[in-house]
């Protein structure tokens, strides 16, 4: 199979592994739950594969699009937190439930958002290049948002240890290896061959991560269904509202069409896979939190399939009023 063919059928692959993961987790709940320990290593390999596709030594060309970068930061770290706080007022004031919603909705996606941006005819190159910036910004700002929304309780729960461990293992290590790989590829033919091979990593490891996440957490979703289901309407409302806000921001910053679509996908797609290890490191009293996060993933993937149809055809069609050099 050629890489292009694999990338074209990846959505079908993800849908299949979600079903397999759910079925396996419900059929063998104990064995499924034991797969939880494999999530972080698989996710680290996935992120390395994705980071390796970023032209780090040519990012200056991409970030010449200053308006897109400003719009991206505005929508993800100003508009989204305000909306999430307002939506949380409609939830039961149950800390594990709120924490799960905050963790997943306050962090912009850095993995499969690139795939859906491309499928939705947005500028995936801009989203890919912005990945390191989004990662560092959300890791710096997430503790602040949690403190603002949950107070001292959040500071006690989200200890420095899990955050630092996840940051080092899931971000710093894959990012450093990806930069080293790109440098190696520029110096040696063997490095160039290895770099080309890393392009095969994202699709199979995304499928593996999705399988592990769903298989290990579906039992918790079933166990806490009455509470978890309270978050589902919030996730749906978020998916419906964010494209509208993002389009307004895109027009305010005068983004061209493909950049505006990329902004919509970034605003509506959340970072559930990376924040999940943070939730899994919490004390047992917070066992509901990972289930709340995984539920968002299931809702979001359905929403993304709708996004790729509606964003280019309805929400952000070619509009001269928003057209400008980004």
Structure description:
This protein has 326 residues and is mainly alpha-helical. It has a single domain (3-315), classed as Na+/H+ antiporter like fold (Up-down Bundle). The protein is 78% helix and 0% strand. The chain contains 19 helices and no strands. The protein has helices spanning 3-8, 10-27, 29-34, 39-51, 59-62, 66-88, 95-105, 113-119, 124-129, 131-150, 152-157, 160-187, 189-198, 202-223, 225-228, 232-252, 257-268, 272-280, 288-315. Helix 7 (95-105) packs antiparallel against helix 10 and helix 12 (160-187) crosses helix 13 (189-198). The model has no long low-confidence stretch (mean pLDDT 89).
Major sheet details: none
Using the coordinates above, name the CATH class: Mainly Alpha
Q: How large is the radius of gyration?
A: 19 Å
First CA to last CA: what distance?
Answer: 37 Å
Structural class label:
mainly alpha
Q: Number of domains in the coordinates?
A: 1
- Reported CATH architecture: Up-down Bundle
Chain oligomer state: single chain
Instruction: Extract low-pLDDT stretches.
Output: none
Short summary:
This protein has helices spanning 3-8, 10-27, 29-34, 39-51, 59-62, 66-88, 95-105, 113-119, 124-129, 131-150, 152-157, 160-187, 189-198, 202-223, 225-228, 232-252, 257-268, 272-280, 288-315. It has 326 residues and is mainly α.
